[in-house]
Structures are given as structure tokens and as C-alpha cells.
């Protein structure tokens, strides 16, 4: 049992005697006897390191999904992670540091975060980005909180094109903040923002603090961002855009459309699918809102000798200083994933990001055309897509997923019926070869027969 | 010194030096250029596989109105320079793997490499979160068993693994409280926290839709039970406590507190940041807590990653189980695992299933350590902290000089009055001695606080070296000279101007003028 | 400063501080204790699996006469201290991943991380060397194809992958020579090498049972062909050449040299240390060489590992193929690979099949780089080196200031006479500038030599920064002050006393008094 | 095609123009036209990184042996490598440094080697160890060269208990040095050193420079080292012992028997079986021979400010200084494997090394007894063994290996018939569980039927 504790028995005895105790038990004299756990924890004894590895290997081996050729997306993508990124991001200085509270010995993490912020700000098209939030969902929640605080309005219009899980999380947290989240439905894959009177659209009858949309949206469709911006501007609301940072290789930046806050899921840059976490909440905004920014922000400054240095800044927004009036409660964030994201984005670089998006779009076009050529497979909606698309099937989606798993493919992510109608969401990344797609389509054809 | 700008002697028109290591402390103290300075037009590192997919152009694939105009500048760097740059950055970074990190409240223990490898297994890392349960039985079993073990450790009934950090766990817990009270027909409005509480507590209370009511600590550093009673009424939804509290002291009146809060219909929330102190000794459930969050990145050896990711599971007593977020893994009579959302669930609190790979790391740590091992962890952590407090007696003020748990709070208040030695100066000077600084100026109720948590993985020799270093700093201050006030000098940068950063905000490379 | 010995203030009787990072240059410049100083009686890190094998005692298993008496002291350290110690050591170490490494003759290029991963694949790393060919077809195919590709690159017929480094390749080559001549009925006694040759060449000649005959270089830095002819007779077994030679100059008379050597029945040996210069441009086979070794740890991106392991395959022309070491992988008509030992093989030169995982790394590099890529490698390497020579004109002496290949040799002879600047001082001072030093005092025929090999993976910006740093050092010397003579000062230790190390030999911790 | 070259076309042009050239081709003007390679290398074009990984994965996947439960040894052992060792030894500072020519920036590698030398010296029981040689075979070759140089005699008596491949390598290199290697046969597993007149035993009729034996020997047997030492002493020869560093956890050190030079194979400490390399040649000796030590040696010294520092020392032995008179031609050695070995040995520590040897010995006893209980399986020799043993089989050894591979086991290493008689060499490491051994024995029983 490796408990990783260095103390030998002799040393323990020596230390105890120094503090005037004669047993380890006495260390816990402050714990009332009635609360003391008799008989210790009801847990098995520790395993040796090799036995632990074996058990972890057994569990890992019981996930057939991990071996499938992946056509599922829905917010979690199977992108290439180069060896250089894996190697750098696993350097123990990045992995085993705490939050950079002592900047003099944390320039490594701080500069990496400063570069991350710059990279995210560039691809989001707005001038400031924070040092990460938990995931796409929490970034949406924080964007809503920021908009509510900025406008002092309580209602937010949320497109149903936003990831259903993210909306679920927003609803959960709205129970605490009391914000009114009004969902705006899609028509044929694109959000139908209400044009006229708002009364009918909200419970409160209030103008919205913000509109939130995803671009491309959950169904893979290219939203009409200009229409959303126009809607928001007309109502004095902020524009919150959840973007796909991979799609940003080709698409206009949210900032260029006029977004006030840009959020997203950063997993595609360097993080494996990991059964859903840890992922990376991207959060960027205009300078106007920087003092309401949730989470940590790194800024450039100087040291006492005039050298360039980095430090977390505008700390008065944060929970440890402002406490109940903080802009957010976030403390531990996803720094290592942000650093990984920065490394991967730098590895991609200007041309690689574009190439990545292009390759995803090409694979998507190729797979989509082939799938739609199958009898009974129909497009769910007709709006243009980039790197993901939804199809309606003659067979239940989860049955298709099950059948394709037997052929070695993860067919896609089944759509929850209520909102979008039954169907399957299919994503094609740059990792998918033509041969893989052809085999997938052939298997698909058999599966829907 | 910023790096040389390129001399005209050579023909190279663009950019900063790439392969130069002068910012790596093994050779120098220069500034490391940003990846934007290292960028050169047209340089690349990327490499994608051959796919044979038709090479449609962007115009053919995307409607013109959506296409980005011109070039979206990222940066342009070779793999060699990428590796050089980030490797040099790691040499400018302190970490647990380099040395002791006695940062109070953060439990910066050594994280076994075993757990890194476990979390990197392809069978875990390559699973898509939407893959059906039948194809991810290993993951569901891991998560299910982890939840079960965490319940055994905390003495609770059921747990959610979704919250990705402690603060997220807190808010989840408060929403559970809210749902519970709402179901009882009366949402209530107030949550009580001690004045020694961590900042995330009041911030979460606000986001949970409650008002924060502060209860003072008494002279012994614990919740003032009389003052607490004054604040209790049937508008109180609950109380949030850390036990041991942020002074490292065990709240001995916890049973009485629990009874009093329960009496007015309130719930008790346990902030598990300090759980390391009591593993195998006592359990929040035994103390009367209804809701518990754990920081797996403190207690269960998930490395901090420079600020995250962590994992903040929340465990609850039986009556609150129906409110937990979902879906949760449950095992059927046939041994098969499936997802199930509790009946009255407050809903999701994470995009997927929580920080799964961090959960896997913690699971592997718990497997390896086992029940006895966890008890041993608490013993050694508390032993180290008490030894160090004794050792520093007479060197620093000890505002609460009585048996502590896994950490204790010292103060430079006296040294400041006599010799001008501030807590921040001790922190900076200690870096030069080869130790990370303790947490400073927290908890807020201690003047010039130094909050010291050695953890169990540091040896007695390290304890002595740390004590000697802290002693040296105090002696220097008494001798005059103000060395500490100008520390650190041996680090890659000297003391950083935090005020300037806020005054002249430069949050990105592009914001420089 | 050695670390604090423990103060009597605490109770800790034994050992040096474990968790202290004061030797990590990110915080300090202290001495890092050895693992023996970090040792504490009874401390452990090991962990073995549960096997359920009967627990016989040592006495039951080993005859008493063979059993070690008492304890065999190794060291006693926790995993935490082990990780801290070796992580700190890495912070005291320069490496390619930190910055440029223009060490002449060493080809310190960037080693792609891709190749690390390839060599770590369990299917390669976990194969036992005695496993039958049927169960290791992947390995045999890899080795067979690598040998084939190396032959195409060098223009040779067949290769052995057994030699684990360049020097081992040399000796293998010399033994091939010996076997060849022996078969011709006349072993011969002499091998010619130029005066600019690397030290391993004459050392290998001796071990090959030959006498070393040195041929001088001419004024242009190349083999003096007339002098060579004087030395040629039918007692000459062969000649060993590096081309480009160690001055970085291409031996333009190589065809003439080859003809002359062949005329007396001698063989030509190609020392492939400088192969990087000519990839895709010309091949040793085309030049007339009979035997070629390659340093895969130079040309083909096997990282140097602080001094090894490398790999030194030897390729030969058709007539020498029957003498190659064996066994070698050969592919049958059915596509199956098997092991075969050449007819007149000189025998094994390695315990097994050579440094297999290093070979796998090189193979992955060759796969990724391809034929065109390798030609590009040579071009960029030669471009960088020529650019730098031009750039340093007038700054340092350039004893052979004409078009060079992948490296060139500068000299501080003039600066030494005028300002006392020695090559070693430039080397030490350059460390402070964030660059590894060039090779100094080699080749032996150049006074105060600085042998500079930038490699192709360093950018033009790095070239300029390196040039500017070298220029700065020369200017400083001219300005007087002797800064370089006391360099380096910014490194973990200052200039090291090499003479003392030899005078008062301390080869182990136990040899200290 | 990732060629890892940073130069952009524009930069290349700029650099060319600075040196007065107009094409890359002109860089090679010194290469006579007749020697220029027309049409480039006859090699396929480069692959992308993912394609390269895929190809390497394909080759790795074609080694069924790597998945077998390993009972083969014969100088290459399947020991546990803990995550901590793997992680530390793969730190890029260790991996991508050159030989420590500039000690001021190479204290990491130098100190690690100094610690390695100390550790090897301790387990070998002699006061000095070098910084590594290539492998067990090359260490034997160098030991012989040292002995010959020290004694000015040309003959070395080599026990046939020494690994056959190592002896083969010694023979290969003896062709160059001209040393006379006389092989001394085993009787029932233990070397039968000639007692009387030496004339009959050597071609030259000379007294030996040294005797070389392996302990435990190739067949796993515990040699009578005292007899070897007595033989050597009587003849004024040196004693060269090839030891097993794992067995050293239980056995007397070669130094305690009186060995002058101790060599061995260091692979068991932290290095995977790797199809045979890179491995680690251990080399240690008495102080008397330190100036004849082959390869690099690190020594402690001081820097100009009086700080403890390490540096390679006694460099005048080495090829770059002494050239044709050097004690050896070795330059690049196996430093990274030596550093790995030091880390693993420190991880084992005093009690772990003993425990490791004990566990190997226990598994060996258990497996040996069970195998010998099978009808027709006989001990090849009767001398006591520690962690490896040889059996005679009713079926050809390679057939048994083939059959057991189908059951998931690597049965062992077949013995080459000429010297030892047909048989199988079986090793059991601490990784083998009782259940694995039981299954192996059951499969074995079927295979020899
Ligand atoms: C006492 C206490 N509570 C809560 C938290 C918040 O946890 P997290 O950072 O995981 O959100 C911390 C973290 O430092 C803490 O120390
Ligand atoms: C020119 C030359 N020849 C031979 C060698 C020896 O090669 P190795 O160190 O691989 O034994 C070297 C190594 O530095 C070299 O530069």
C-alpha cells in the first residue's frame, strides 16, 4: 500500500515527543469522542501500484466506445493531438503548480495564460479573454450573469440552437440567480428571433438583458448572427455568442458580428474526449465589460527591476476579495486545459487553424452527401452546416448507434426527441479518412435497412 | 532586460530569437518572448493525416457571408520554437515536483505519478461522452464506485460527481438546499457563514439566491455559538462550515451547532477543503452535515494544474439524495450500469459527467491508498502541522496557539510592529529559501496571517528546513536591514508590480501600446 | 553554499532537507543534495504487486554461503523526495528543448516528440529479444526496412543495425576490413586517418588491431593528397574519412583519394558523423566508400540522452556484405521475415539486435521526413552554417574562410593574442547569453578552435541572436575587462575546477572523506 | 511532411542573398558534379505526423510477443517500471542534452551520473564505477581489455556460464585485439576451472590475464565465485565478474568475493525489454584500475565560488585526448539508461532491492517446482539457482515456445544445443502472480505432451 507518506516510525515518534504527545491518536483529541469513527473507514485496504494500474486498466478496457472510429460530436470532438502538445502540456511544472499566487515563481503559468488569453481574444474577435472557466456550459452561465449585471435586466433570450446540456445547466443555476431564461425556437435549423412585441415571449414581459446563440449551433447550422445582433441592438440587449473555436478557422469571428461576450468549449484544442471532462470554458468580451469578467485574468506588468512580468489582475472582481459581491464564485478553474489549448493553437497557427476547419468541413460535406444518398436518411433541417449535421433516420437513432458500434463506429450523437425531432447528429473531424467515411456509410446503410 | 532586438548586421528582418534560452534560469534571467514575438510569417508546425477526402475550397463549403475575411492571425511558429518556448516557461515555474508548497487551505501534497498514468489510459481518455452506457461500462463503474467510496469517506448517502471544482460544488449544494426548502414550501432567504470562511462561500451564497449572514469567531478561533444562536431563525436556509476551519482548528462544538441549525429547519453544508485533516478520524456525516463537497484536487491528489482542473463532488444525506444533479451512474441487479436522473433533481451542473479524468485520477489514488492509508494521511498531515507550530513558537506570533489539525495560522503582526516585517515579505523571502510561500492574509480575521499547511507528503527533514528558513527570516528582520522587503531577488523576476497591472491593464499581447 | 545542516532546534536527527527547492535555479543557486544525503533509515518508495506466491525466506531460497551479510545499502528515499530531487536536477541541465545547441560535430537538432511516442509504443517496448521471429514480425520488418532505407541514403548495399554508437560502428567497420583482407590472404597492418579526425577513429584503429598512420591536412583544410599517396602501400588496410570533414569542408578530391586507396587494395571507411550535410546531395557509396557508419543520434533525430544511447549502423558495399555481423532480418519470398547470419560474418557486435528503440525512433523520423525532406534538412543545415560564417567574418578568425557544409570552425587565436580571449572563455560566456557552447579545441589542427554546427532546426532569428551574442563577446574582449574569463556567473555553478576533480578524485559519494 | 525546418521561403532567400548565393543548390558547389545525386534519394516522400504514428502503430501491433506474459529472461527481464521512474527519466532535459561537455549547465546529468556511479559501486561492492557502457557484452569486452592492459598477458579464461551472446561479441572484438579467449566449460551448471598445468588450456600456453565468470550464470546457477577467485589468485590473474544487479539484492557482492572488475547488464532497472536495446553496460572496478577505466567517469569537485560541482574526470584516458592510446574507443555511451537505472535503484532503495530479489527467487522456486513436477520435464543441471533455471524437455524448446505463445505466454528462451544441451531457460520476475504461474504451468503441461 503506497500511501506516499515519508515518515518512518522512528521519526513519527520523535515528532510526537517534540510536541509532547505519545500517540498519533492524541493528535485528534479536539475531535469529540462521540464523533470519532470507530473501526476506521469502511473501505478496502490499499492496493500496490501495479495492482492499482491493473484495476484501472481493467476499467479502461471495459469502454468499448474508446476503440470506435468516432463520428460523434455534439460538443466533444475527436481531433488530432500532436505529440509535441501532449509532451509540453504534461510537464510537471504546469501540472503540479497551484494557482499563480506568487507571480515571481509562477511566470511560466502566467505567461502561458497571457498567451492563451491573447489567442482566444484573437479567434473570438473581442479584445479580452479570461484565464478559463469550467466548460462550455459554465461559460454560458457566466455570460448570462454578466449580461444581467451589466443591464440590470433579468431576462435572457436563449436560442434553442444552444447545446441542450448547456441550457440545462443554465436552467439549474438560474434557480439560484432567479434569471428568466426564455428559449427561442429554431425554424429549419436557425433561430427565429421574435420580431415584434416582447410581451408574449417572456414571463416577466421585460426586454431581455441579452440574446444568446451558438454559432454554428448544436445542429451544426450556421446561425444568422446578424439577425441576432439586430434583435439585440433593437432591444438594448447584449449579444452573447457561443462559438466553435475550430469553426473559427473559416467563419467570421463573433466579435466581427458585434458580439459583446463570446463563450465556447475549448476541448477541441488539445484535450481528448475524456468522457466529457475536464474541458475548457472559453470566455471573452469587449473591454467595456472587463470589470465584470468572471474568473481570473492575467495582465502584463513590470517587476521592481523593470523586467516584463505577468500577474493575475483586476483581482477585486474575485471572490476571495469581494466575497458575496464578487462577479463570480469561480476559484479553481481549468488552467492546465487552457495552457494545453494555447500550445495546441500555437502549433496549429494561422494557417493550421484554417486548414483544420477546412478539413473538417470537407469531411463533413463528403460524409453528409453519402449518408443522404441512403434511402430513408433525410436532412433534419436545411440550413447550411460546417462540420456537423443532423439527419432523420428510418430507424431509432440509438439503434443505429448500437448497430454501428458492432461495426467499429461511433455513429453519432442521438438527438433528444422533444426539441429537434428524432435524429442523429454526425460530426466529421480532420482525423477521418475517406476510407473510414466510406466504410462508415456502408455500415450505416446496412444499419438503417 | 528584454531580449535583443535583431541587429541589422544580419539580413533577418523579422522576429525575436527562437532558440535562445536566456530566459531559462539555468542560464539567465532575461524575459521570455511571447509566442507572438517568436512568430514569423509563413512558419508552420501543423501536420494532418492524409485523408483522400475531396479538397473542396472554402468558397464551395461555406456561404460567402459567413467566411472570415482576410487572415485570422493566430501565431506562426515552428514546432522547435514551440517546444523551446514552453519548456523555458516551465523552467520559470515553481511546482510541487520541485519542492515543498505549504500553501494553507490548498493541500499541495505530492501527486503520485501512478495517477497521471491511470488518467492517461486510452480506454478512459478516448471515450466520447455521448457514447451509450453499454459501451462505457468501465467508466460508469469507475464513477459509480468513486461516488460510493466518497460517501463512505464522508459518511453520506449519495453523491454527484458533476461539479468541476469546490466553488461549483458549493453552488450545487446551495441549490440542493434551495430545492429542499422549496419542496418544504418555504425557500428561506439567509445562509450563515463564519467570518473565517473562504471567499467562495459568500460568493456562492449570492449565486444561490441567498443573503450571506456572517457569524463571528470566538476568542478560540471557532464559531461563536452564542452569536450563531442569535442569528438562527426560520429564515435561515442553512450554514456553511469548514471543519477543521480555515484556522486549522476543529470546531469542537459542531454537534451543538448542528443541533441548533437543524432545530430551526436549516441544513448544514460542509466545505470539504480541509477534509485531509480528518480522513478516517471522523466524518462530516457523523457531525451532522447534510451536504458535503470535496475538493479532489486537494485531498485526493489530483494535481492542481496551475489553477485547475479540479473536481468538486457533492455528497448528501439520504433525504437530499432525490435532489442531486443527474444523470448519475447506477448499477442494476444484473450488474449492468446505466444512467439515471434522481426524481426531484435540480438538473445538470456540468456539460457532461464532471471532470471525468480528474475523477479517474482521484479514484486511482483512493484505490492505492485504501482505508487505512487515508487514515495515515490525516495523521501525518496533522503531525507535520503541529510539529511545525511548536517549532515556530517564539519565532512568529501564533494567535491560536493550541492543538491544530492539518494547518495553522501564524502572524507577523508583532514582527511588523517591531521590525516592519509583513506577511507578504515573509512570503517573498521564503521563495529565495527554496520553499513556496504559505497562504498570506487569509483568513481575514488574522492580522498579517501566514496560513501554513505542510501536508503529509513532506518529510520531517523538510519540516525542519522550512522551520529553519522561517526562523532565519524572522531573525534577519530583528537584525534590521529589511532584506525581506526587497525579496525575492533570486527568482526569474523580482517583486512584481501588481498595482501597475491593474492600473495600466494589458490583458493580451494585442492590448500593448 | 551547501544546504543547511539540520539545526538542533527541532528533533529531527537525520538527513538533509527533502522538499526544499533551493537548488532549482527558478529560486536559488544552492547545491542539490545527493540522494544519499536525502536518505533516511527505513524510508521507502517501492511497491510491488500482490502475487500470492509462497513467501519463502531468503534462507530457504539461497545457500547460506551466497547470501549477502548484513544490509546492502542503496539509499532510502520517499517517492516524493525522489521526484523532487530528479526534477530539480533537470532544472540544472541545459538541453536542446531549452535552446540552441551549436555543438560542432554533434548535430544537436530538435528531436520531434512524435519519435519519442513512436519508440514508447508497448508493441515495440515490451518485446523480448529472444522471442521468435514469428511473434516479432513488426520489429523485423521495421529493422529490415530501416537498414534498406539507410542503404539508399548512403548508397550502400547492406547494413547491420547492431552497433550501438558511432565508435562501435567504427570498430565494426575496421573488423570488416580486417576480415576482408584476411580472406584476401593478407591482413595488412595500417589504417590512415587525417590529422583532423575525431578521437574515436584512432582509438578504434588500435582496437581493430591496426596501426594509425596520420595524414596531414593541406592549407585548404582537406586531406593532403600528395602526402596521402606517400603513405599508401600494400600494407595499408584502408583509410577513415569524414566527409565533410571535421572542419565542415567537403573533401573535393574524394574521387581521387578513393581511387588511390583502392589502387593499393585498401578500403575506404566513411565516418558518418557529418552525414547531415549531404543528405540527398551525394552519397558515400557514390564517392567510393566501402564501409559507412551513421550516427542515428546525430543525423536521424535520436535524442542524445545526455550522452547516449545512440545507434551506429554500418552499411557496406556488396563485396563486404557477406562479412556483416548477424543475425540480420531478411524477408522471404512469402513476405515473412526471419533472422539470418551472413555467410562469412565477423560475428555479433551487440548483446542483441542493437539499440532497437533508438532505431525505431530514427525509423519514425525517416518515415516522417521522407526523401525530399532529408534533402531539405541538408540544405537548411548548410545554409545556416554558411550564413553564420559570413555573419561572423571580421569578428572571429576564420582559418578556412570558404564555403563550408553543415558546420565551420572559427578561432579566437587572434583575439587571444590581442585581448587574451580563449576559446574556452567564449564557450563559458556564451552560456550566459542563453546558448550552449560550440565544440572547443577540436579539431586539433586549429588553434583555439570554435567548431560551430547550428543544425537545420534553428531559425534564422536564432542564427542572428547567436551571431549577435558571439559578436558581443568579442567586442567585450576588445573593450578589455576580461568578463569572459570569469564566466559563467548566471549558471547553477560557476566555472568548474576540472583539474581539482582529477587531482583529488571523488568518483562516488562513498569516496568522499 | 513535417521536416521540422523553420525557414520560410522568404527567409531562405534572404539568407542566400546575404551569403551571395542565389539558390540552395549552390550551397553544394564543393561537391563535384560527378558525385551529385541526380533525382534525389530513392525513398518515399515524407508522411504526416498522424500517418507516421499510424504506420509505427501498425508495426508495433505486429509483435504478438509484446502481449505475452513473459517467462523469458536470458539477460533481458520483465520487471516492473513504476510511473515515477518513467516520468522522471523522460524529462526532456535528460533526454535532449548532449554529453556534459559544459559542466556549468550540465549539473543535472552529471550529478545523476555521480549518483549512478555510487549506486553501482555499492551493489557491485567495488569502489568505482564508470558512467555506463553499451550493454552487458561490451562491458565484458572492456573488462577483458582492461585485464590485458593491466597484466600485459594476452589470454583470458572465460566461463561458458557467461551469456553466449556476450561471449560471441567478445570473440568478434578479440579478432581485432588479438586476445586469446579460452572458454572454460561448466560441469553440472558450475564452471570447472582447470586446476593444474595451464598448457593444455590455452593455445599460447600462457597464464591468463583474467578469469571471467557470470554470477548467477546464464543457466541461472550460483557459481562458486570463491573457486574462481582462488584460481585467479593462484595464477596472478584478475577476477572479472559479470553480475546480475537484481540478484545483488540477496547475493554477496562480487567485490566481497574479491572481484577486480565487475560488469553486468543494467536493463532490469527501469528499462523495458525493448527487443534488446538500448540496454546498459555496468562497469565497476577497484581503485587500482581507475586509470584504465573505459568510458566516462564523473567526479565531484568545486566551482570557482567553492560550491560543490560535478564534472567528467580522468579525461586523459579517453579517446578524444589520448586518441590511439586511449583505454577504450567509447564516446557516446548509454547515459539516459544509466540515469534511468539510478532513478529506479533509488526508488527500490535498500529494502526494495532485497525485496525484488526475494520475490524473483520465490516465483522462480514456485514455477520451477511446478514445472519439474510435469512428466518429462527435467532439470538441465543440478546447481542451485536464484531467479532463472534451465529445464530439459521431451519436446523441442522452440516448439514449446510456439505452443505456449498461443496460450498467451512467452515460455522462455530456448537454449542453443551445442553448449548446454537442448532445453529451455525460464525466468520468473516479481511481476508474475501465482495465478499466472499456475496457468503457465498448466499450458506447459499440455504443450510438452
Ligand atoms: C476553504 C476553501 N473553500 C472553498 C475553496 C474553493 O474550492 P475551488 O478552488 O476548488 O473552487 C477553497 C479553495 O481554495 C478553499 O480553500
Ligand atoms: C566525427 C565523429 N566521429 C565519430 C564520433 C563518435 O560517435 P559516437 O559518439 O556515437 O560513438 C563522433 C561523435 O561525436 C564524431 O563527431
Task: Characterize the structure shown.
The complex is a heterotetramer, with two copies of chain A (449 residues) and two copies of chain B (513 residues). By secondary structure, chain A is an alpha/beta fold. Helix content of chain A is 37%, strand content 15%. Chain A contains 14 helices and 17 strands. In chain A, the strands form five sheets. Chain A has a seven-stranded mixed beta sheet, sandwiched between helices. Chain A has a four-stranded antiparallel beta sheet with strand order 13-14-17-16, covered by helices on one side. In chain A, strand 5 and strand 6 form a beta hairpin. In chain A, helix 5 (107-124) packs parallel to helix 11 (335-372). The N and C termini of chain A lie far apart (54 Å). Chain B is of the alpha/beta class and 513 residues long. Helix content of chain B is 34%, strand content 10%. In chain B, the strands form three sheets. Chain B has a seven-stranded mixed beta sheet, sandwiched between helices. A three-stranded antiparallel beta sheet of chain B has the order 10-12-11. A two-stranded antiparallel ribbon of chain B has the order 8-9. In chain B, strand 11 (439-440) and strand 12 (449-452) form a beta hairpin. The longest helix of chain B is centred in the C-terminal third of the chain and has 36 residues, at 356-391. Chain B is globular and about 70 Å long. The model of chain B is unreliable at 1-14 (pLDDT under 50). Chains in contact: A-B, A-C, A-D, B-C, B-D, C-D. Chains B and C meet through helix 2 and helix 15 of B and helix 2 and helix 15 of C. The structure holds pyridoxal-5'-phosphate (2 copies). One pyridoxal-5'-phosphate (PLP) binds at residues 105-106, 165-167, 198, 200, 242, 246, 271, 273, 295, 310, 312 of chain C. One pyridoxal-5'-phosphate binds at residues 105-106, 165-167, 198, 200, 242, 246, 271, 273, 295, 310, 312 of chain C.
Order of helices and strands of chain B: HHHHHEHEHEHEHEHEHEEEHEHHEEHH
> What is the distance, rounded to the nearest whole angstrom, between the alpha carbons of the first and last residues of chain A?
54 Å
* Beginning-to-end CA distance, first to last residue of chain B: 18 Å
Secondary structure tally: strands of chain A: 17
Which structural class fits the helix and strand makeup of chain B? Answer: alpha/beta
Number of beta-strand segments of chain B: 12
- Poorly predicted spans of chain A: none
Number of helices of chain A: 14
**Binned strand content of chain B:** 5-15%
- The stretches of 5 or more residues of chain B where confidence is low (pLDDT under 50) are 1-14
Strand order of the largest sheet of chain B: 1-7-6-5-4-2-3
**Integer average pLDDT of chain B:** 95
Structural class of chain A: alpha/beta
Major sheet summary line of chain A: 7 strands, mixed
Helix amount of chain A: 25-40%
Bound molecules: pyridoxal-5'-phosphate
From the alpha carbons, calculate the radius of gyration of chain B and give it in angstroms: 26 Å
Radius of gyration of chain A: 25 Å
Q: Biggest interface, which chains?
A: A-B, 211 and 211 residues
Residue-averaged pLDDT of chain A: 95
Shape of chain B: globular
